[in-house]
């Protein structure tokens, strides 16, 4: 896979963007994670989230200006989450649970911090946590003197300041008060510089004439500071951001300034770059949040406003946090939901899997479980298509010989059968030697409803002049979906060759997948849908109306997601035939039936999850216009009609028609070819005689389907065993067991001879070959 | 060499052609170009090897999948 392409895909997924609250916070407090824990009642875990970023939780919870609330997306649905009040409730209940341990350095570097304000102490905190030895020099009688002066005890209790300062000192920070730096040694700046590995000036934004001999000052007499790195004119001296006197003071702003200075000092002490991969002061976010999907809900009011939220009130308010995530595709996709992932992470995982030279490629099945249905792309704010990523990965796997054989063998074998001489054929309309149109029903409608294919072909020949040719073949979708580019190319080339040979007629196909793939790979071949064609030429006269018991919920196949004309034609035909059609969330947001991308072969569980999600959306009978969709719904127990059942009703209750199953599908294709060639083209066709007759109970038949084994193969195994005697006999039950290698699978059959044929009891297969050593 | 597939119960099975009960024999299993010895019930006379469903859908499937993902 192309690394640059992968990066571009990854960049499209915005799920890892920060929520608005964290993006607006100078300290990047993860208020989303905090609120999630609080909503769950786990205040200790929430405290850990808060204290991971905030050096002085008790202080900040009381005085933070909470810029997060101004940008909270909940504001659009009832009012911003009261994050400040949540933080106070959190500190009230869980402050003692904070556990902190500083890193231990073998040879700690020494840092002097001048000024015990919030900026200086935040820097001291960060540096001591990194394992440095920090001494703070404060001119006043106590640290954080400004807080004591500026806030009433009711707003910021002295006990909160004492708790946070005490915790800082416990971490090993040496705070020395009444030590004004700027005079003679030992309290001169030069002496500090000489005695420490780095010095931080955090003494506030006032003029600094006392340091003029050591540091360059700006025009206003303040220390000259580089705004990005917070360096001064002396390489060992740094200054917190407020020294230029331009920014207004804020508690959280001071802390952020101290943190940035500490970051520079730590980089300086390690000899690292001061600028490399360093974020700015504030970031934006482009996280998409579907606010409309949340009902408006007003903020929780505290019963005692002075005391703030109690535990239950805080939980309720925290639960108002959505929380902000995009996950638009994940919410709608059975595949992403199964793997509990989102595209950015999945793309990285897929690329890593692709890059493995030696070792287990653990994500092969994950890559093969995407339905390639295009729903994610439709829902994604940035149009990221996981199908494109997975298809590219599959092609790479095939190219390198890493595609697990078992994932797609059965589907490819089915495709080979559809393309074989036993099934595929093309003819001009009887009595014509040229074709104005060429009907291409597609392999799945032929497999599901061969009688309706014959009926609609007859109708087309009656209404379209100039000859309507018939071509039974496969468009190559299974090869395309499985990443077999060359095999898909063969299928496409053959269709092109027939089209040329037939005089370049327009193609009319009943299958949305064929239509989509022809548009993509045979762009110069004029191709239309059978449904738009029928809308144009009209439905059969006096067609029997199927008595409908109620409305039908219409399901568009995923390959017709953007085929607006086709969608409209289908609805118009259904309405003309008396059906009351209801939408299932609209054609553009349709979901896969589990066949798309061959997911039901590579990962049946995910394939079934796709179907099961879809069939629970409405209690109405479903109306499909893809044979595979209809049959998959039927297989999972949903009553479903095909549009053909409305046009050519050939059963009393076609919505109850069972899924023909894979063996039945093959049989239907064989029969369709023989019937058409015999009845329309007068060719002599003899029906093949099965080698043995089999009696198979429904439960056994369903098991055979589930295991992707074929009745024809089972008959071959039994016939061969009976001919050669190579079989085992159970002395107790009298049952026989035989096996045969067909293609890449060894099929085992447990059976017994009955009056009317062989009764099949159990069938299973494996791919590994075993043989006795000679 | 160990037997990755365990010992299935095949005590009631006889080879219909040779009329001999199956015995645990060393046989060769192979998949995707990898070959390894295993013990499976087989006819001691004609060498017909029996693979039970339990083994086919259990340990054998696991080995197949592991080899496919190599």
- Side-by-side strand order of the widest sheet of chain A: 3-2-1-4-5
Q: What number of structural domains do the residues of chain A give? A: 5
- DSSP E strands of chain B, number: 4
Largest β sheet strand count, sense and barrel closure of chain A? 5 strands, parallel
N-to-C CA distance of chain B = 22 Å
| Structural class designation of chain B | alpha+beta
Q: Helix coverage percent of residues of chain A?
A: 40-55%
**Helical stretch count of chain B?**
2
Q: Report Rg of chain B.
A: 13 Å
**What is the count of β-strands of chain A?**
20
The gist of it:
The complex is a heterodimer of chains A (774) and B (70). By secondary structure, chain A is α/β, with parallel strands linked by helices. Chain A has five domains: 18-98 and 288-318, no CATH class; 110-269, 3-Layer(bba) Sandwich (FAD/NAD(P)-binding domain); 328-403, no CATH class; 404-688, no CATH class; 694-766.
């Amino acid at each position: 896979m192309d690394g640059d392409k992968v990066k571009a895909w990854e960049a499209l997924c915005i799920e890892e963007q920060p929520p608005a609250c964290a993006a607006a916070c100078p300290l990047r407090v993860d208020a989303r994670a905090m609120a999630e824990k609080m909503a769950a009642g786990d205040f200790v875990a929430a405290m850990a989230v808060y204290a991971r970023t905030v050096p002085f939780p008790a202080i900040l919870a009381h005085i933070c200006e909470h810029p997060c609330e101004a940008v909270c997306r909940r504001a659009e649905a009832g009012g911003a989450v009261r994050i400040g009040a949540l933080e106070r409730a959190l500190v009230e209940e869980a402050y003692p649970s904070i556990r902190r341990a500083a890193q231990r350095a073998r040879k700690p570097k020494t840092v002097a911090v001048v000024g015990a304000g919030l900026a200086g102490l935040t820097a001291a905190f960060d540096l001591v946590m990194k394992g440095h030895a920090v001494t703070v020099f404060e001119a006043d009688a106590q640290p954080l003197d400004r807080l004591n002066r500026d806030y009433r005890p009711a707003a910021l209790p002295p006990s909160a300041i004492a708790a946070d300062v005490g915790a800082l000192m416990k971490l090993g920070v040496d705070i020395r008060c009444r030590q004004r730096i700027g005079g003679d040694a030992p309290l001169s700046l030069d002496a500090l510089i000489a005695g420490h590995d780095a010095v931080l000036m955090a003494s506030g934004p006032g003029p600094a004439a006392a340091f003029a001999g050591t540091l360059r000052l700006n025009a206003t007499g303040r220390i000259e500071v580089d705004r990005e790195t917070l360096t001064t004119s002396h390489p060992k001296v740094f200054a917190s951001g407020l020294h230029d006197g331009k920014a207004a003071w804020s508690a959280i702003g001071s802390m952020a300034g101290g943190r940035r200075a500490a970051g520079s000092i730590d980089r300086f002490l390690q000899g690292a770059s001061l600028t490399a991969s360093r974020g700015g002061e504030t970031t934006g976010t482009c996280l998409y949040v579907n606010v409309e999907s949340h009902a408006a809900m007003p903020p929780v009011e505290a019963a005692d406003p002075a005391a703030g939220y109690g535990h239950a009130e805080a939980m309720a308010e925290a639960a108002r946090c959505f929380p902000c995530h995009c996950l638009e595709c994940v919410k709608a996709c059975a595949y992403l939901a199964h793997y509990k992932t989102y595209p950015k992470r999945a793309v990285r995982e897929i690329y890593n899997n692709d890059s493995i030279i030696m070792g287990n490629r653990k994500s092969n099945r994950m890559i093969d479980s995407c339905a390639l249905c295009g729903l994610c792309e439709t829902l994604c704010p940035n149009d990221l298509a996981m199908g494109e990523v997975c298809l590219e990965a599959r092609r790479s796997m095939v190219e390198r010989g890493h595609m697990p054989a078992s994932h797609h063998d059965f589907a490819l074998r089915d495709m080979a059968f559809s393309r074989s001489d036993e099934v595929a054929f093309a003819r001009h309309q009887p009595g014509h030697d040229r074709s104005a149109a060429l009907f291409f029903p597609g392999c799945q409608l032929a497999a599901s409803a061969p009688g309706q294919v014959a009926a609609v072909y007859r109708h087309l020949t009656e209404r379209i002049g100039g000859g309507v040719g018939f071509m039974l073949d496969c468009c190559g979708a299974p090869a395309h979906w499985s990443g077999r580019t060359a095999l898909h190319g063969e299928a496409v080339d053959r269709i092109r060759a027939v089209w040329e040979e037939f005089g370049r007629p327009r193609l009319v196909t009943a299958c949305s997948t064929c239509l989509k793939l022809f548009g993509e790979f045979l762009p110069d071949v004029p191709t239309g849908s059978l449904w738009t064609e029928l809308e144009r030429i009209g439905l059969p006269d006096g067609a029997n109306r199927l008595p409908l018991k109620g409305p039908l919920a219409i399901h568009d196949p995923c390959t017709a997601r953007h085929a607006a004309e086709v969608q409209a034609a289908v609805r118009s035909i259904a309405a003309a035939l008396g059906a009351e059609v209801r939408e299932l969330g609209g054609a553009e947001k349709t979901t896969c039936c589990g066949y798309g991308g061959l997911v039901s072969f590579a990962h049946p569980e995910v394939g079934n999850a796709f179907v099961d999600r879809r069939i629970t959306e409405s209690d109405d009978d479903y109306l499909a216009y893809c044979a595979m969709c209809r049959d998959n719904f039927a297989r999972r127990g949903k009553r479903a009609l095909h549009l053909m059942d409305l046009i050519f009703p050939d059963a009393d209750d076609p919505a109850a028609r069972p899924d023909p199953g894979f063996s039945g599908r093959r049989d239907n294709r064989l029969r369709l070819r023989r019937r058409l060639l015999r009845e329309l083209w007068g060719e002599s066709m003899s029906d093949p005689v099965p080698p043995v007759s089999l009696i198979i109970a429904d439960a056994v038949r369903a098991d055979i389907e589930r295991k992707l084994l074929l009745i024809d193969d089972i008959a071959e195994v039994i016939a061969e065993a009976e001919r050669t005697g190579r079989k085992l006999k159970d002395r107790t039950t009298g049952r026989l067991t035989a096996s045969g290698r067909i293609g890449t699978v060894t099929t085992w059959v447990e059976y017994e001879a009955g009056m009317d044929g062989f009764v099949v009891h159990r069938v299973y297969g494996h791919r590994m070959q075993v043989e006795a050593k000679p | 060499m160990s037997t990755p597939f365990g010992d299935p119960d095949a005590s009631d099975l006889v080879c219909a052609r040779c009329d001999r009960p199956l015995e645990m024999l060393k046989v060769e299993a192979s998949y995707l170009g990898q070959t390894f010895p295993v013990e499976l019930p087989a006819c001691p006379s004609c060498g017909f090897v029996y693979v039970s469903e339990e083994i086919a859908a259990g340990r054998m499937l696991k080995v197949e999948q592991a080899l496919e993902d190599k």
